Amino acid sequence: MTTLALLRETMTEFLQNQGIRALSAWPKAERTVRTEPLAVVRVKEVEASPAGFHRYLGEVYDETARVWTETYGCAMTATFGLALYSPEAKGEEGCRDLLDQVAEAFQRGGPAGLTVEKWSMGEIAFHRDSGMFRGEVAAQCRAVLTEKTDGDGVFLAFEVKGGMELW
């Protein structure tokens, strides 16, 4: 899975775990009449910058393998776009209710490894193509992408970590 897909799926799963109907993509096959409000998640923008000297963050002890591994990484800011849809029958109020649920979810924390720094909501309007009311939320999240290497410097994996203090 690519980094962008991982980010999108992480936000989608977070919203679903908070009781919000959410999809990471809205396949054409599923563009049927919806009866409940829905959030569709996409990654709008990602900015990454080195964290540490030449991306080196230090060594981390792996409890399972009982070894120290060198860790590299970068600081990252990801901006998510959440398109909030509400059926015509529920009206604009359906979007507002969904926004309230999203706001409460962000106040309780954020997706694993991501810190929600700020978010904003655009205007809600009727969207002719979908036949639903639609509003857009932008959520800016901060994280550190870490990469682990073996003893020979070969990268083994990367992980998203939020709220990490940089020196």
Your description of this structure?
By secondary structure, this protein is an alpha+beta fold. It is 19% helix and 47% strand. It has helices spanning 3-17, 91-107; strands at residues 22-23, 38-50, 56-62, 67-87, 115-121, 125-127, 132-149, 155-161. Strands 1, 2, 3, 4, 5, 6, 7 and 8 form an eight-stranded mixed sheet that branches. The longest helix is centred in the middle third of the chain and has 17 residues, at 91-107. It is elongated.
Major beta sheet, specifics?
8 strands, mixed
Order of helices and strands: HEEEEHEEEE
**How many strands in all?**
8
- Percent strand equals over 45%
- Average pLDDT, all residues: 81
Amino- and carboxy-terminal Cα gap: 30 Å
Count of runs of 4 or more consecutive helical residues: 2
- Which structural class do the helices and strands define? alpha+beta
Low-pLDDT regions: 163-167
The proportion of residues forming helix, as a percent range, comes to 10-25%
Radius of gyration: 19 Å
Characterize the overall form.
Answer: elongated
